[in-house]
Design brief:
By secondary structure, the protein is mainly alpha-helical. It is built from six helices and two strands. A two-stranded antiparallel ribbon has the order 1-2. Helix 2 packs antiparallel against helix 4 and helix 2 runs parallel beside helix 6.
Length: 187
């Protein structure tokens, strides 16, 4: 009886503290898909919020530091690359994305890359995520990875670049979308 009393707080915490996931049969892939989708939305809203005249700005004078527009195309480049590898398809990137300069061109390629990646994440299940897949590196070297590993790398990389994009917005006194005040709830 004493053991049951000690376990009761743990049991009730695990039952009541965790909201039910929409897809109980695929908790890992559901989590990753939801995290990617939220991050996708935040990155697109951030790119939309930056005025076009600031797409060519870079912090400092070092030319190896990306402009804001190049940060956005960098996201697109790697979404095309890693999602095509996850799908086992040829990379559909139009190439030379860093050469794009207009906000309209950059937003189009960003949205195209995310739309392409949506298919990789929407098809993901816990079973398919645990599969080993063959990957050809840019150098031509062949490697293998878990599909989960590759898509988690993509999500983490998107987050990393989003962090850089926020700094660019802040330098222009623009509040990033994720930091905007939430609308007041009606009572």
């Amino acid at each position: 009886m004493n053991k049951l009393i000690l376990l009761l707080p743990l049991l009730t915490t695990s039952v009541f503290a965790q909201p039910a996931a929409p897809d109980q049969s695929n908790p890992l892939s559901t989590w990753l898909r939801d995290a990617y989708t939220r991050n996708r939305s935040t990155i697109v809203r951030t790119a939309e919020k930056m005025p076009e005249e600031n797409y060519s700005m870079r912090p400092g004078t070092q030319t190896e530091v990306r402009t804001f527009g190049q940060q956005v195309t960098h996201v697109a480049t790697f979404n095309f690359l890693w999602c095509s590898q996850s799908k086992g398809e040829k990379n559909p990137s139009p190439g030379n994305l860093d050469k794009l300069t207009s906000k309209a061109e950059i937003m189009k390629v960003l949205n195209d890359a995310f739309t392409y990646c949506d298919g990789a994440y929407s098809a993901l299940t816990d079973a398919s995520g645990a599969q080993m897949i063959d990957i050809t590196q840019e150098s031509g070297r062949q490697t293998r990875s878990l599909r989960f590993g590759l898509l988690t790398l993509n999500y983490a990389h998107n987050n990393e670049i989003y962090g850089s994009m926020v700094a660019y917005l802040r330098m222009k006194d623009i509040v990033p979308p994720a930091s905007e005040p939430r609308p007041q709830q009606k009572k």
